[in-house]
Fold each of these.
Amino acid sequence: MAQQSSLEERGRYGRRHPRPGLTTASVVTAGRQLIERDGLDALTMRAVARELGTAATSLYRHVADRDALLLLILEQIAEGLPVEVPGDTPRERLLGRLVAAHDYLAGHVWVLHILIRGDLVAETAFSFVDACFADFLEAGLSPEETRDAYWACWHLMLGELLAQHPLVPPPEPSQRTRAVDEADDGRLPAFTRVRRATQQAAAEGRPAEDLFGGSVGRLLGALLRADR
């Protein structure tokens, strides 16, 4: 009987040591740490339970399922998006806020792979959106133009992050790097002219993160026309 009790205590996944004071916050923190260490696909309720040294069934007292946990993690990340930023004009504030959001999300690119599913949204992110809307409206855009301008900036940010900040950086030189470097000047004259200018900027020490700031700055210049 003692041996059977010992086996039951050890359980299927080895000895468990119940963690006193298990909370929703501790479950969210464990899930986020698991994703950041092992990747988004590693997030399962059993894996989080192992992180916490408890049974998976105990997690369901705090979160309904994996998607509910993902949403809580999204809410936690979204709390870090910039809202109040310095700037005397709407354009200055928009540029500062968008660049700061880009740099923040560059450290959490895995979040974007949750967002592009299209079915989850963090309500804590609405303060960021509202601040951007307010600046576009103050700059003279109509509500419809504000919506379109915000999505143009957001999609630029999303595309840049997904393209330039892969979840797992490839070994260099990658196939993409080689293909760009070996593009034929005669067949692709415009492509290679821009490539050379980009390479020259990099050689002169222009930080890569400045590229998004330049792109979104030009986009804002077009969206916030001087005659407004």
Amino acid sequence: MIQNHLHHKEEHLQSSDLLTDIVIGMSDGLTVPFALAAGLSGAVGNQVNLIWIAGIAEIAAGSIAMGLGGYLAGKTEVDHYNSEQKKEYWEIENKTDVEKEEVREVFRNWGLSEAIQEQAMQEIIKDKKRWVGFMMKHELGLEQPDAKRAGKSAFNIGISYVVGGLVPLSPYFFVSNSLDGLKISVIVTLICLYIFGFFKSKITGINPWTGGLRVMMIGAAAAAAAFGIAKLIDG
């Protein structure tokens, strides 16, 4: 039963990480290329090829930049954990009594009696690795990150950005007039933004109907601003 419980917990954490990466990649992937395509639609007239060339270039650059950001964030998390872990090992070796008292303090906060605190502390400190792991989790509030998290995050975010970016850009491959492409892109992208916002809000515990509408309105505002500025500059 214990093994099954731990296995289930690990799957839950991995799924949570994956969902986080998808949300990060898709939110920007749907919005930024949408705004870019809308802005170009207000300036290039019938030169639709310029829109999808620029769009593909932006998606490529954006996915790399977002993926790199995810990699650096994951790498920083691992480096931070390793640094704190090294400090804990040093403190156990050089400030043993202080660290023992910190273990007791954790159990004290759990409401255990002094006798049980002492007994539990003695069990914990028998193994340094277990002792350090206990302090990392219950004193510092740090869970050991997946060593491969950085690479996985970069891939997940990058791919999510590409998938999201192709949604507003794809209509331009099938039309000869940029405004026709924009009309289709607006409909398709706003629907996708609402669906994305709905499920994102449902996962995070926010009212999904309101959350979906908010995400859709942000995307619409960005695209409208880009289109209006391009028209203004183009004259």
